[in-house]
Amino acid sequence: MRAVVYTDNGPSSVLHLVDLPDPTPGPGEVVVRLVRAGVNPTDWKFRAGMMPKVHEQVSPGQDGAGTVEAVGAGVDTLAVGDRVWVAMAQHGRPIGTAAELTVQPAAHVSPLPDAASYDVGASLGVPALTAHRALSFATADGRVAPGSLASRTVLVAGGAGAVGNAAIQLAVWAGATVVTTVSSDAKGDLARAAGAHHVIDYTSADVAARVREIAPDGVDLVVEVAPAQNLALDLEVVANLGTIAFYANNGGDEVTMPLRPSFSKNVRLQGILLYTVGEEALRIGAEDVTAAVTDGALGVGEERGVPLHHFALEETAAAHDAVEGGAVGKVLIDLA
């Protein structure tokens, strides 16, 4: 099989195309022939050395979509030929989704509904599961489903980003009123295409005042990408017993938290990292995300606020550079 790999950390130039032996599945595993792979910020950050490199040779990529090529012993939930989407593919493994074939635990491989494209499947993974985890803190049972967020108001910071877009689409599907912040009219258009009910340009508006107009008692949940910059605002607009769920450190690695506004509202500050969240949370997330895709509630493309950028496998370095450079939308690698 063809795969893009690196043996040393560094810039995107360390990535190179090689031929590797086709993998075979062990017990509880499946081999997926990938049609499309998604590129996330963690891919270039791992490659650049921001996280420890534990394998001699790495093929990056956590997300992808394709068909089941082979099934290992004990797997009865998937069959050869099934259309699937893959999440957390390179977590703890040397070969991710920048390869024609990848062997994965069956638990990390989910059915891709017939009506969903491989573009959609490869765009789920990290963004959709992160968004699901954030939204789950506002539901009674940790599930996100139609009606589970009814009567709730959710504020999504950075609604034009991959996780922000997924959070908007999932929250709308679950019945929430969604408010989002963006930095330009163009990004506002993307957030509206995702389904946001209220879009606020934080570069020109008094965000706290606008949120209070929409939700006088505060928002039930904040999905936050930049806590170092936004925590004071979040505490101002979050409701009593609300949650601020943050999944990134955009804008700074440390935050100063005013204590009284936090404990006086009984606010929960909730961190999210998929790599340490546990298999049960990933399973629940994958089930709920698949249900949303089945209902047509999660999509990609301009019409859903997710412009697509396609690269060939041999252009994986350019795909990494696009994500590192802040490409708006979803960067995909074509493998078929």
Fold topology:
Blueprint: E1 2-5, E2 16-19, E3 29-39, H1 41-48, E4 63-71, E5 83-86, E6 101-105, E7 109-111, H2 118-122, H3 125-136, E8 153-157, H4 162-173, E9 177-182, H5 185-194, E10 198-201, H6 207-214, E11 219-224, H7 227-237, E12 238-246, H8 259-263, E13 268-271, H9 279-294, E14 308-312, H10 316-324, E15 330-334
Parallel strand pairs: 8-9, 8-11, 9-10, 11-12, 12-13, 14-15
Antiparallel strand pairs: 1-2, 3-4, 3-6, 3-15, 4-5, 5-7
Helix pairs in contact: 3-4, 3-9, 6-7
Describe the structure.
29% of the residues lie in helices and 25% in strands. The chain is of the alpha/beta class and 336 residues long. It has two domains: 2-123 and 306-334, Alpha-Beta Complex (Quinone Oxidoreductase, Chain A, domain 1), CATH 3.90.180.10; 127-274, Medium-chain alcohol dehydrogenases, catalytic domain (Quinone Oxidoreductase, Chain A, domain 1, Alpha-Beta Complex), CATH 3.90.180.10. Strands 3, 4, 5, 6, 7, 14 and 15 form a seven-stranded mixed beta sheet that branches. Strand 11, helix 7 (227-237) and strand 12 form a beta-alpha-beta unit. Helix 3 (125-136) packs across helix 9 (279-294). The longest helix is centred in the last third of the chain and has 16 residues, at 279-294. The chain is globular. It starts with a strand and ends with a strand. InterPro entries: ADH-like_C, ADH-like_N, ER, GroES-like_sf, NAD(P)-bd_dom_sf, Zinc-ADH_QOR/CCCR. It holds the Pfam family ADH_zinc_N. Keywords: NADP. Residues 10-333 form the Enoyl reductase (ER) domain.
